[in-house]
UniProtKB/TrEMBL annotation:
Transmembrane segments: none annotated. PROSITE patterns: PPR. It comes from Solanum verrucosum. This is DYW domain-containing protein. PPR repeats lie at residues 81-115, 151-181, 182-216, 283-313, 352-386, 483-517, 584-618. GO terms for molecular function: RNA binding; zinc ion binding.
Amino acid sequence: MKTIKLGIVGQRTEYCFHSLILRALSSVTNQTDLHKVHSLIVVSGQHQSTFFCGKLISKYSQFKDPVSSLSIFRINSPTHNVYLWNTIIRAMTHNGLWSKALDFYTQMRKLNVKPDNYTFPSIINSCGSLLDLEMVKIVHNDVLEMGFGSDLYICNALIDMYSRMNELGRAREVFDKMPSRDVVSWNSLVSGYSANGYWEEALEAFREGRLSGVAADAFTVSSVLPACGGLMEVEQGQMVHGLVEKSGIKGDIAVSNGLLSMYFKFERLLDCQRIFDEMIFRDIVTWNIIICGFSHSGLYQESIKLFREMVYEYEPDLLTVTSVLQACGHMGDLRFGRYVHDYILENRYECDTTACNIIINMYARCGDLVAARQVFDNMKRWDLVSWNSMISGYFENGFNKEAVVLLKMMRIDLQPDSVTFVTLLSMCTMLMDVDFARELHCDIIKRGYDSTLIVGNALLDVYAKCGKMEHSVWQFEIMSTRDIVTWNTVIAACSHYEESYVGLKMLSRMRMEGIMPDVATILGSLPLCSLLAAKRQGKELHGFIIRLNLESQVPVGNALIEMYSKTGSLKNAILVFEHMRIKDVVTWTAMISAYGMYGEGKKALRSFQQMKETGTVPDHIVFVAVIYACSHSGLVQDGRACFNQMRKKYNIEPRIEHYACMVDLLSRSGLLVEAEDFILSMPLQPDASMWGSLLSACRASGDTGTAECVVERLVELNSDDPGYNVLASNVYASLGKWDQVRTIRKSLKARGLRKDPGCSWIEICNRVFIFGTGDRSFQQFKQVNELIEDLNRTMDKEGYVADLKFVLHDVGEDEKINLLYGHSERLAIAFGLLNTKEGSPLQVMKNLRVCGDCHTWTKYVSKIVQREILVRDANRFHLFKDGTCSCRDRWIGAVVDFRRDAKLLRTSVSGQGYFKFLAVDHHVLDV
DNA sequence: CTAGGGTTAG
């Protein structure tokens, strides 16, 4: 200040002073200093100078003080030249006062001040930020009229502006017409595509730029990285990463952040870790990316930990707190969620719609709908996400009424979108409300959302889960695009409805379309293999499991054990079991029931013992498996002990399926009186399955007296299950009481009930051959029949006598023997013998139980031809070897599989489902 | 004149 008082005389002094102020201006770092320099200029009488005014306007705008910029501009109004106009326009634009900037542009045009090439970039920027298409037209026109159409800076600004307005066509047009382009032109184009989600185009422009010889800089890279991430183009992303490593832009924060963000999208957490560690400079964006990235990868604890770590160094911004709130929501950590929300309120963060949506979601996930609603009600503006989040929050927490009310309110100012419909459809699935789903479906079609993938998937799911398989299949077929979720949904539905053949067909169709299975596919498909005994597909899925590194997942291992045990390979089931490092109660149950199916009761019991020793607490289902295993191996004492232990030691009240197992156990062991006493003394109402078990046992042991009493009990129950009716009818038939047989058959017919026809199938060279009872229509019928007759002659000599009590028709003796020949398992076995190498083992599947005579017959065959024959019937496996069977002739049992009642063993075979493909196909299936 | 980070649903 003192220097000024010394007096300023003459040109030279003035000049010195001029440069002094200039130097002072450029070294100003805060607003206070700026005010000092400003006073200096005023005191020195230089405040009329256009040059200093411009400088001051820019400086004030740098320090976010547009008011001062404006007042300086106004004071100087007489001397306005284009330079000053440009400065004020730039200042306004810089401070986000875009309409003010445009006002000044209009004013200067009115005053006939001619804009120059420095005027337009700011003006264009303001138009773009305001999304004012009218103004854009005027300005673009002015640019062309004044001959700036080829100006590099102006064109770059135009590209950027059109990009912001999502007018990529126009952006491209400007770009293409440019006589010469620099790296900014390319960057503006790439970032325009990228920011608007045109990822393929962004990558394409990036490649074009590289080909035309423009060296990519930090801007280029950080614009193209989101495109790589969005497209999940891992290799492309790594290529860009390589470029970064080679060039000098490695230390750029935005570039590193872009890489981090991309690798999070690829879920390559190790790469993220490495990039993060290598970063010398990090900023708040870096932290936000990793907090958000961890949260999206399901590492919610880590995300919260990082947040706590970060707040020591940085003050979190809106994006930080919303990122950590997502983690809170997923963890259900209401306490921390509230704490963060309070922090937001206390520090007066300006929450935009997205931030509010995230807070609503956090509260909804934590079940605090009151808090969620409060945030919702206090929002300034709502978008579709707000409504959808609030509505699905209500549904998820069972507030259906509130959700519906909100839905109606929503329709007043916004139309539902695909996500709204998906939310509503999944609610229908939850409530099994197929009528509402149909209504929604109409609305969906009206609004044209039926072609949307996620809506299609939701429709598929709701129809399948509500039992409308035809609707579901129809929906599937009309979908124009399908993704992995589509396939998984349809496969899971097939699995649920035991449409195993259709399910496996779907799996192979999916593979044909080049889609790789994931965990959900595998968990949906393995039960299909179990049902159909599709060995090859099962093994193929095991291959995928290994390739996808899913072996360590417990549910996958469990499904594998079940698959191998049900497709005939106890050995592989054991191998999988032994390789599992973590075993849960389902694992043990699967292994125990596998042993049970193969008649390895002792091993089943040993497994059960081991399970208890390793600390796994038994549940009610594992007891079903244990008693089942005992019953199939004749371990009456052990079975009884388990049954008693269940209540006494584990406090598990026996359910109907446990009683059924016990009746089966006693019946199979020939303890008919005890079985009857057991049924009569149990606290629950006996159902048809119990009398059925007992009756089968009576039949097998030839105890006609008891059978006659029991069959009456069974008939009294008047079960709708065709299996028990047929059993009763069979007993009457074997007693020769044909009148009763006819009565039952009539009543079955009247009620429209029919038993599945028997069928057997065998897989040879990856093809499945199916045989129905008395089937004559297959190609090799003649040879098969001859072979059967041949075998019968041989076994007759060895003492085989056909047991005609298994023929349940009122016909003559000869005819009865003929009927036995036609049993489907015999056809399948003979067909197998004809078409496979001598000495090789055979595996035959049957949808119903093997009949007693066929069981004996197969034992003879295994001895005559010296082959192992593995037969899976509705109940278990029978391994025939040299005249004996692994079931030790305990094949008798309930006609209908009682294990259906047990949840885990839901997928057991009962005969349903097979008939459907028999009707569709003939004898050969390509699965 | 150009760049990087946040929301719902199957």
